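tool_log.txt
---
The assistant was asked to compare two proteins side by side. It first ran the structure predictor on the initial sequence, then on the second. Raw inputs and outputs are pasted verbatim so the downstream comparison step can read them without reformatting.
(1)
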Amino acid sequence: MNRSDRRIRIAGLILVLWLSHVAFAPAARPSAQRLLDRVAARVNDEIITENELLVAAFGDVRQADSVMPGTTPDVRETLNTLIDDRLMAQAARQEIKEVPEEAITNRVEGIIKERRSILGTDAAFTAALAERGWDLPSYKKYLHDIEERVYVVQAALARRVRIGDEDVRAFTVELQKKGESATQYRLRQILVTLPAQAPAAEVEKAQKRMLAILEQIRQGVPFEQLAREQSDDKRAKLTGGDLGWIDEKNLQRPILEAVASLDKTQSSPPVRTDRGIHLFQMIRKRTPREMLFEKRMEEGRKQWTTDLRRRAQIKILLPELGSQ
């Protein structure tokens, strides 16, 4: 069996476990929980459970939205990422002694609020948690642990990065030589499709749809939820309208003019293009200094995990994934 076939078999085995878990009725949940309580890996003196692995690979209370159609997550790769994250968190806790508990708690509450809104009702949210063996307190603890690890790792990595003005100027020149923009935008989009030469009746119908969406935003409905539910962009149901990072030069002029001055979370006015009527929300904008900082952070992360793995005691314990 070659490496590719083995990886497909591994992913398939774990997928079968996952699908059988979410299909269990509430009465069968105790046996499902015992199945998912196996230890997937031991990283020094900490463990990664099978439940953690499956959630990381397939998502938690929105697992169906986390996997692109026609794809299967690489579970072994996911486990390696979890191992790296755990190694960095262990080391980072030796450096970062203070954690902003209030900020982490607020972040956790924000995640829960967002996921409740996507599932529609408290009952649906509670049921989704129960299907995965959680109640609300245990889910909050799970999220808190993740956010705390993210914080200490990012803080420890940031200490390792030093950037001066000359570094930024050199990086900007490098971007220009590659034909890349010095500014990048991360946007969410809601699209109401409308042909360029649409008849007046279709234009009026599309405009009314967009006005209704704008009214819901004004009333406080999350942009991401509306993108999933009402955008004509098919990927929006999976991404909440998130378009990822886009170079400034790759934005059509009407779109760039609409988004360039937006603050974080602010929405644009409707923008008409040959695809239809768009509405954008600013997730984040980054400059050359921020791009360089993130590049150096990622380089530092790779080097750090390589060094930590040399000294670590790591054992993969799931039979489906073999041993290490």
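(2)
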Amino acid sequence: MSTAMVARNQASLADAGVALMANRDTSPLLAARLHRRRFMQASLGAAGALAVGANLTLPALLAAAAGKLEIYSWWTAPGEVEALDALYAVFKKQYPDVDVINAALAGGTGAGGNMKTVLQTRMLAGQPPDSFQVHLGHELIDSHVKAGRMEPIDFLYASEGWNNSFPSGLLQLSSDGGHQWSVPVNIHRSNVLWFNQAVINNSGMSAPTTFDDVFAVGDALKAQGIPMFALGEQAPGHAAHVFETVLQGVFGPDDYRGLWTGATSWSDPRVSGALTTFNHMLDYTNPDYLSIQWGDATDLVIAGKAASVINGDWNNGYLKSKKFADYGWSATPNGAGMYSSLADSFGLPNNTADRDNAISWLKVSGSLAGQDAFNPLKGSIPARTDAGKSADYDNYQRAAMQEFKTLTIVPSVVHGFAARESWVTDYVNAMNVFAANRDVSATAGTLLQAAQDAGVA
């Protein structure tokens, strides 16, 4: 791959994220206001915060002893657990005397969840974990950097050479106000259709690449009593994730980016068109999608009870963890040529109980050894440009590493790249309501209002 092509796509990633950073809320009070209800529910006052911590088997909020490292994440699903354990193993090899406390708690993406709620409680209480998983970009900057809860880590970027190790677009997304705030451990692609190869083959059709293909294959599968898509929307998130890929397919990369910058209006009739397309897709979805969790959807595909699921490439890690090999993948409908992107990262909260150990953790997370241990199991590709050469990476990941260099990068909204956190919450909740009432007109109005509330008409 030529240097020019890599540079072009680094610039594309910068366009997908850096230009969007201008839309971040500049008021730290908004982040606190957005989380007020969840904070009150989680904390129930000072005594309630301690009770929540105890009930969720989190370590005590106070008096963390020297020699410990508490890491907070929502990585509790198959593939995620193994990947995090592999990263811990690299850390323990270098720092064997440090007691690593895995404070993982399920639920965190999209509009929030248990992990984000309890993390917010602890951050507001001034009792943070030593480090925590967070999506690069708006999710970290809006929620915690602008509120003054994080320590800049420019010194680590300098000492570890990270300014030369990560793509320029990621460097821009991890920065704010001239400082670096977190280290990316991976890059995920979110616009992937994962399918059960046997189910597709038995339909007599090929894996769909366009919306027209989707409905043709869906009809063939419906005749066999098999849903085309698996969806899990018991809690808000998965419907919003799928719909962002529909927006990408309907608008194309430039106009899709414009939805989050103000260059494309949410009053554009294509928004209603995208909702109509998604509504039709729901006709080919498991009928109990409002009663199952996001992760359960992939289990339907593994069992042959649904043909496919639209998900990020953490699904790759999930499928490998489940020892299911008969799967294929393609870009989401009308999504060929686009790489919808996000990245997980770790930062350094203020007032950590074990700052030195937290710094050591960040060094490992950004290291070649750490990323090459973590990503083969997570299903993602490494953030470091010099990683990803080991035989541990699978065919999907090797293809994704090349596609990241050549495809047009677009930002995921559900996973923290495209928009400020308040807007993400409004968007995710709007799509959760749509999944239930399937009202195209009302939802188009809600999405327009959400954009206006975010200051983007």
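---
observation on (2): DSSP finds 20 helices and 14 strands in the chain. The chain has a mean pLDDT of 87.
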